[in-house]
Amino acid sequence: MKQLAMAGILALGMMAGGCGTTTNTEASAVNGTWQAAITLGDGAATQYDFITSFSAPSSGTGSLGVGYFSFNTAGSCFMTGTSASGTFTLTSDVNSVISGSFTFAVQSGSPAGNTLSLTGTQTGNTITGTWTLTGSSACTGAGNFTMTQTT
Description:
13% helix, single chain
């Protein structure tokens, strides 16, 4: 009876050891193309919707490899030379549901000095959160965003 109880405790410990970890397979599940819908605080649409593709680090934590970024309509705050970077911190539960924290920043090349910053939470194929735009007096704002993985 003691051996059976000990085997049960050992099995539970092994299952619990997988909680909150991320494998290469789970980290790669967020890799691909994402479409962002950016809204103002009152829900009005903005000109900052974009599409991007990136890959998460195999460990699930660290800098994204941004392969592509493009605004649907750039507007006057991001005319040319735009660059994007971001980070992910992923976890996975015992049911392999992937979630995590996400940051993303878009810097303008010309005109210089404008930054669109996104901070959110990823669950499955959706990232939701808030954004801020800082820079010149004509390029400021804040609101909410939703990103959906398309591939």
